[in-house]
Design goal:
With about 450 residues, this protein is an alpha+beta fold. Helices cover about 20% and strands about 35% of the residues. Strand 3 and strand 4 form a beta hairpin. Helix 2 crosses helix 3.
Length: about 450
C-alpha cells in the first residue's frame, strides 16, 4: 500500500442484497449520463437490473460533491445475532449495484479515511477516550488494508488454496473468514467491521482520532497486520490458529489481559480451564463500570449484560432440538458435550457432541458457538454442568458456564477501554494486544 494520498485509496463495502432495493439520493448524483436525485428503486429482472424502465448489467450512482449522501432502506444489522434488525442507513460516496447469486447487491465505494470515521463511530461511542479511539482507528485501518491486499492477491491467483473446512464421517472442522467476499472488499456487518455510514452522527472526537492517526497501520515483518478485535477476551487472549486457518501469526499470541501478562495457567489443560472459567479473576476487561462499558457497547450491544462470565441453561429437549436443527443430524438424547481440544485462552476448538444414537466432533470456535445457540454463543470458552439425570442416566438440564464475548484474538475492546481510562496511550494499548508489531505511517 504505497499511496501517498489517502483520498486515492478507496474501499468498496457490500451493504445489502435483495431482489428489490429502495433508496433515496439526498443530493444530485450522476448515473448513465443523467443527473438524478430523490427516491429511486432498482429491481431484479431476468438476471439484470431494472431502473427507470431500462435494463442494466450494473449501474453506478456517482456523487457530484464529496458531502453528498444516499439512504438505503432495509439494511440488516447484527446478522444472525440476538439483536438482528433492519434500519434505513445513510452513506457518503458512490453507490454501485451489481447482480450476484440471483440478487442485486448494493456496494458503497468511498475513501478509506471517510470509511474509518464511520466504522469507529459504529464500533465505539462518542464518549470513548481519545486513546481508545486512536487505537481503534489504527487497527481498523490495518485490518481493512490487510484484507484489501489479501483480496488483490487472491484475484491475481495468489491464493494458497486452502479450504475453510475439513469434513469426515464423524467430524466437521470449519472456520469462517472473509475470503467469501468476491465483488467487494468488505461487508458492512460484524462479519467484517461494523459500518453504518453516517447514520449515527460522527463525533468530532472520532474525526480527530482518525485524522491524528491518518495513514498509520500496525506492521510485522514488513507486512500489514491482520488486526483482529472483539468485545471481551474473558481474561486471556487467544491465538489465531485456534479460530481460523492453522497458521501462527507471531503478533497474535496468548497473554493475560492485565499488567502481569504472563500470569495465567495452561488453559489447554481441561482441569485448569474448568477452574479458570468458574472463577472471575481481575483483568482489564473484568469491569462493570457503566461509563467505560458505554464507550464500547452501543444500545443494542447493551442488551447483553453479562460478558466476562456468563451462564446459559438448556433443557434436554431445547439442546437436542437446537443441535439437530443446526447440524441437520439426528443424535437422539444429548448425553454430553465434551471438550477435546482448547486454545490457550480456554476456548474450545474441537468438541464432541455425544448422543444416544451417534457422536460427532465439531470445530472451530465459531462453528461451536453457532451450533449451541439460536444466534451465537458469546464464546467457546465454557464448561458444561449436567443435571437431573433420568433412570437411564440421560441429563434433563444443561448449564453452560462461559468466559468472554467473541473469538478473543487481538484487541479486547472492553480491555482497551479500561486501559484508556487508566491513562495508557494508544501506542501502549496497541503494543499490549499485538506483540512485536510496530506502528508505521504509510501515507
Amino acid at each position: 500500500m504505497n499511496k501517498t494520498n489517502d483520498q486515492q485509496v478507496e474501499v468498496s463495502v457490500g451493504i445489502v442484497s435483495a431482489e428489490r432495493i429502495h433508496f433515496i439520493l439526498n443530493a444530485p448524483y450522476n448515473a448513465k449520463g443523467k443527473e438524478v436525485s430523490g427516491e429511486q428503486t432498482v429491481e431484479l429482472s431476468e438476471g439484470a437490473i431494472l431502473w427507470n424502465g431500462d435494463i442494466y448489467r450494473e449501474i453506478t450512482f456517482c456523487p457530484q460533491d464529496s458531502e453528498s449522501s444516499f439512504s438505503l432502506d432495509d439494511v440488516v444489522i447484527g446478522i444472525n445475532f440476538h439483536w438482528e434488525r433492519k434500519e434505513t442507513q445513510t452513506f457518503l460516496g458512490s453507490l454501485r449495484f451489481v447482480v450476484e447469486e440471483g440478487k442485486i447487491c448494493a456496494i458503497n465505494q468511498l475513501p478509506v479515511e471517510r470509511y474509518l470515521e464511520s466504522v469507529i463511530s459504529s464500533e465505539m461511542s462518542a464518549t470513548s477516550s481519545m486513546e481508545l479511539l486512536k487505537s481503534h482507528a489504527v487497527i481498523s485501518r490495518s485490518w481493512l488494508l490487510a484484507q484489501m491486499e489479501k483480496r488483490k492477491n487472491v484475484a491475481k491467483g495468489g491464493n494458497n488454496g486452502f479450504f475453510s473446512f475439513v469434513k469426515t464421517d464423524d467430524e466437521l472442522i470449519r472456520w469462517y473468514d472473509r475470503e467469501d467476499h468476491t465483488i467487494f472488499d468488505v461487508c458492512a456487518d460484524d462479519h467484517c467491521q461494523r459500518y453504518q455510514g453516517i447514520t449515527k452522527e460522527t463525533s468530532p472526537h472520532v474525526k480527530e482520532a482518525v485524522a491524528a492517526t491518518r495513514g498509520m497501520i500496525l506492521s510485522y515483518d514488513g507486512e500489514i497486520c491482520d488486526a483482529r478485535f472483539y468485545k471481551s477476551c474473558g481474561g486471556v487472549l487467544e491465538e489465531f490458529q485456534y479460530c481460523w486457518e492453522n497458521i501462527k501469526k507471531p503478533y497474535l499470541i496468548a497473554l493475560r489481559d492485565s499488567e502481569n501478562e504472563s500470569d495465567f495457567p495452561d488453559l489447554t489443560i481441561e482441569a485448569n480451564a474448568d477452574k479458570w472459567i468458574r472463577e472471575s479473576p481481575a483483568s482489564y476487561c473484568n469491569t462493570n463500570d457503566k461509563s467505560i462499558l458505554t464507550q464500547v457497547l452501543n444500545d443494542y450491544d447493551q442488551e447483553t449484560s453479562d460478558f466476562y462470565r456468563w451462564k446459559v441453561n438448556y433443557s434436554q429437549q431445547e439442546l437436542r432440538t437446537l443441535i439437530e436443527d443446526k447440524t441437520k443430524m439426528s443424535f437422539g438424547d444429548i448425553l454430553d458435550l465434551v471438550p477435546l481440544e482448547r486454545g490457550k485462552s480456554g476456548r474450545i476448538w474441537r468438541m464432541k457432541i455425544v448422543g444416544s444414537e451417534r457422536s460427532f466432533i465439531i470445530g472451530k470456535e465459531l462453528e461451536i458457538r453457532r451450533v449451541l445457540s439460536n444466534s451465537h454463543l458469546y464464546s467457546s470458552a465454557f464448561v458444561v454442568d449436567k443435571f437431573d439425570k433420568d433412570a437411564n442416566g440421560v441429563p434433563q438440564r444443561f448449564e453452560l458456564i462461559g468466559a468472554g464475548w467473541g473469538h478473543g484474538v487481538g484487541l479486547c475492546q472492553i480491555g482497551a477501554a479500561v486501559m484508556g481510562a487508566k491513562g495508557y496511550k494508544y501506542d501502549e494499548i496497541l503494543l499490549h494486544y499485538y506483540r512485536g508489531a510496530e506502528i508505521k505511517k504509510i501515507y
